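The freezer alarm interrupted the setup, so I double-checked each line after restarting. Inputs confirmed:
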Amino acid sequence: MISLDHSKLLGFKLVGTQRSGAKIGSKVGFKPGRAKFGAKIGGKVGSI
Amino acid sequence: MMKFQFEPSGTRANALDRAMHVSLAQSLHYISQQCLGQIDFDAVSLNRLVENISVTRYGATLFGLYYQLVDAIDDDDHTQAGHLFDRLVSEQPVSSGLQVHAIEDEWTSGQAELYRRGMSTDPTVNFSFLQPPDEMAAQFKQKLVATLDRFEPVLPEMIAEIRGLLSEIVLAVGEADAEYVFDGGSSYQLWGALFLNPAFHDTEIQVMEVVAHEAAHTLLFGLTVEEALTENDDDELYASPLRVDPRPMEGIYHATFVSARMHWALSKLLASEVLTEKERDFALAAQSEDAANFFAGLSVVEEHGRLTPTGSGIMQAAKQYMTSVINRSTGVST
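Predicted 3D structure, all chains:
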């Protein structure tokens, strides 16, 4: 079995060791659509 | 040029894009060394790829394949890892300029599936990314190109930053009957790609706004290669002034920053003579909403966020900009 040192993977610093369970690089930024949301969720600002 | 300066910078964007490529090359080299003798792959071609990545721009597909390779190795699936090494070494540098294409206008085999996977890493969000109708995609592409051309004289550094950070804009729509659809999106795992939903953004100023929004996410991704923005765990959820559902601090931080960036872009456009009266009305309303969202998000970040030096530096610069142009008590631009 190959055991990769995750500190040498791109995106490791983004999720960090303290974020257990988070996959490396698993960050997605979204700007949710407006038409089908409630007032706040349909606002201008999406979430990461 | 300061690394954390709030205002857009094409020079910084180019440097971040290069740094991301160099980091990928270093990591791929490390992975290949670990796999030698255990996984069947063309080591000579991979070494050539690593050298090329260090000096040449590649598209989001290469980054997506890299993350699939990591998953396959972690899953001890050596057969799949071998296939992914093959796909990696067949990747070619991207042509210069910002490419715009629909999600299933594939340049390489399996690209659409790769994109969908890269955009679906958040288990709390479930969007579909479907091929838009040809006519819709063609019209949107024309509108996008016209938007960037039209506003480039007013927003030269922002457009330069966008071109520096992004190599491609991918058009995709949601399911017609979905309750939850996306306007735009970007993924750390697909560096260089920005996803837009051509079913929205009817006007050029709306297109500019969503591109500014998503490019700001990408900028933050690029600034966090060496260090995260916050030390808060993703399990720590806070009431977000920006969404009805509680969100991790990282998400609130991102939303706060991109609000300031959209405000900046709209302010520059409003200060110019390029907008029609209708566009000015839209920009003024959106700008006011961006300011309210920024200060609402900032209050959560300041109260609960445990920011790293990187996170603190970036947010301080954004706050300095917003407080310099806004009377915080009234939300009125000064």
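Quick read of the result. Residues 11 and 25 of chain A are 4 Å apart (CA to CA).
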